[in-house]
Write a structure and sequence with these properties.
10 strands; TIM Barrel; eight-stranded parallel beta sheet; two-stranded antiparallel sheet
Length: about 270
């Protein structure tokens, strides 16, 4: 696959967040990073698979420090906060810790609002930005993707929107060098990607990085069918992070399957 003007490419794992008795389990976090380090191209802690919206700032900091310290691959810290101010606060902390960048979700379905948000974010902090198109909120048009790509600090877009037409358009633009930023598929049931896709940022990488690598490199129908089976088997269409924790616990990688349960309200 062409990697034209690519900033990031390959497999980037949105890490689960292990806890034990209600506290961040740093030992288990170190274990999963070590377990995956040779198989992936980068780590993205504190995103939705890491229950990032429920982590307190203190918990977020503990996770970020542990992953950045342990990983030998680039780390893009996820920031799932409701306001620009709270997002900037953690972005500045990520910079201090030595993160390679941040991954931030789209917070609206209004393209003008999306563009304004990421322009302001780029002005108020200096780390590279991966834009996260979620299932609920995502960029609506290829014209807006082009505008976002003109923001110097934006380096990639993780697309979990299931908007097949938009994803295909972005990948097509990558093949002709008409889109500067990397395009990453964010959904396990969409891994049979067109030319121009730079890689995957998917939860399945927490437990099955080898088959994801094979799929990215070979684009095999047979392997895709195997991954779709895992999608159902591992409940990736439901409370996927709970299932992934259970699998990692069974494999002896982490100590507990606990969820992040503390709900927080940020001004």
């Amino acid at each position: 696959m062409p990697m034209n003007q690519s900033k990031i490419a390959g497999l980037y794992v949105p890490l689960i967040t292990p806890l034990y008795k209600g506290k961040i389990d740093v030992e288990s976090l170190n274990s999963i990073v070590s377990h995956l380090d040779a198989h992936v191209d980068g780590f993205v802690p504190c995103l939705s698979s890491g229950e990032g919206a429920l982590l307190t700032d203190t918990q977020w900091l503990q996770v970020a420090v542990a992953v950045i310290t342990k990983a030998t691959k680039p780390v893009y810290t996820g920031i799932l906060r409701p306001t620009i101010d709270s997002t900037v606060t953690l972005a500045l902390e990520a910079k201090k810790l030595g993160a390679d960048g941040i991954a931030v979700p789209v917070k609206s379905n209004n393209d003008i609002e999306i563009q304004e948000y990421f322009i302001e974010l780029s002005k108020r902090q200096s780390l590279p930005i991966i834009i996260y198109n979620t299932e609920e909120h995502y960029v609506q048009s290829i014209e807006t993707v082009k505008k976002l790509a003109s923001i110097e600090s934006v380096i990639a877009i993780k697309d979990s929107s299931d908007n097949i037409q938009l994803f295909d358009e972005m990948c097509s633009m990558r093949t002709t060098n008409d889109l500067r930023i990397s395009v990453l598929q964010g959904m396990e049931h969409r891994l049979k990607v067109p030319n121009g896709c730079d890689g995957y940022m998917i939860s399945l990488l927490n437990v099955e990085p080898e088959i994801c690598r094979v799929m990215l490199d070979q684009q095999s129908d047979k392997v895709n069918e195997e991954i779709l089976e895992l999608f159902s088997k591992y409940n990736l269409g439901g409370e996927w992070f709970v299932s992934l924790k259970a699998i990692l616990h069974t494999k002896g990688v982490i100590t507990s399957c606990e969820q992040v349960e503390q709900s927080i309200t940020l001004e």
